Amino acid sequence: MPNIRDFRELEVYKLATESAIRIFEASKGFPVEEKYSLLDQIRRSSRSVCANIAEGWRKRRYPNAFVSKLSDADAESAETQVWLEFALKCGYLEPVLSKELDSIYDRIMGKLVNMMARPDQWVIK
Question: Which domains does the chain have, with CATH numbers?
Answer without folding.
Answer: 7-120 (1.20.1440.60)
